[in-house]
């Protein structure tokens, strides 16, 4: 058989690297979420069996325990992206996973060491929250740097199901030992995440940067990685007399904030994650308290919310790719989610089938926008045209967006712990308000601000005459008018509005 042409061989090898990167990063972040989930499953057993958490104010104490992790995670996330741009991602990610496994296991060892001191669990949670910030910026940078924008929404929508898959596996694994030896509900996930981290250390390949062809978004090339898809391998390029391009500097924190759309989507994610993480940490306990299911049954039922999250993430990515409107997709799902969330209250054992359906629907509507913003939108903004090909911004942009979102993730469970003693209905009112605010402060507000400019620009473009019909002077005047609107076109890009797809 004849050997494949050199360009085809390079492309196949590059595709292999991309596929391996997708699989490994999927496993990485699945294990991250797998290690975070047990505490929500074990809460119903911690309350009666741990003297540090058996008081009448146990809900507030659980809120503080959740917040110890989430506040540390939110603070660490803003710093993590900066380190992620400057350190080898493989080392950074693998080291963080091994440390995450250690601190997750230490929480569970409190059971076997018979520790009943609240500060021990809080310190472990804080340390775990800090080291877990190594995960998200690293995996998004790895995937975003290997893939262009062509099918990014769909690819990352499917890939982002690792969040829900990890939550499901974490619930099921924790549920095995929740009633017998709850410490193993933490130790086993800790061992799993550390083992996956070691695997990634040996096999994960970081492309370092991707550029895409504007006319063909699928024509992806690696700037710094092992291959370059232009018909030659990277070693062939070394023989070229042209001097290598200067290594771009990592972007600063303030520079990343100036990238169009970063602030708006960060605020949107703050409220979206508030809702998602409130369900993540409190849904099993809510089902136990209100529907009077056992701890294992409540944990199993709560996985349906994550099943819906998988479907919602894929659906959001597919629709945003098809329409080109990431912001519009987020807004529609957030608006529909608000009334649907309230259907989860009240829940009774009689209405189990209705509960199952609503858990799946709410999971899709709540986690769909969250998944889209943290994956495809972050990757789009981190490789925005204003960066002029500097791929080193991706990790910092991802950290800013997810770090801002993590503030909401910390607030949600804390507020739920404070509000739930007054009635679960008040918790659901808070969640509905957060969904509405996510839509108002995020992409939709930008669209409303710029609607007049969009309509004005569209009229000018529509009235642009043919040169042979109205004469060259008239044509030049109209073209000058359109050119005058270019600054407003750039402002339109600064706000992630895609209600109307009109370009100047």
Automatic annotation (TrEMBL):
Keywords: Antiport, Endoplasmic reticulum, Glycoprotein, Membrane, Sugar transport, Transmembrane, Transmembrane helix, Transport. Residues 21-450 form the Major facilitator superfamily (MFS) profile domain. Residues 220-235 have a biased composition (Polar residues). It catalyses: D-glucose 6-phosphate(in) + phosphate(out) = D-glucose 6-phosphate(out) + phosphate(in). It is a multi-pass membrane protein. It comes from the Eukaryota. Its main location: endoplasmic reticulum. The keyword Phosphoprotein does not apply. One of its GO terms (biological process) is phosphate ion transmembrane transport. GO terms for molecular function: glucose 6-phosphate:phosphate antiporter activity. The keyword Transmembrane helix applies. Residues 214-246 are annotated as: Disordered. One of its GO terms (cellular component) is endoplasmic reticulum membrane. It holds the Pfam family MFS_1. It is found in: Endoplasmic reticulum membrane. The chain crosses the membrane at residues 61-84, 91-113, 119-147, 159-178, 184-204, 262-283, 303-320, 327-345, 351-373, 393-416, 428-455. Belongs to the major facilitator superfamily. Organophosphate:Pi antiporter (OPA) (TC 2.A.1.4) family. This is Glucose-6-phosphate exchanger SLC37A2. It comes from Buteo japonicus.
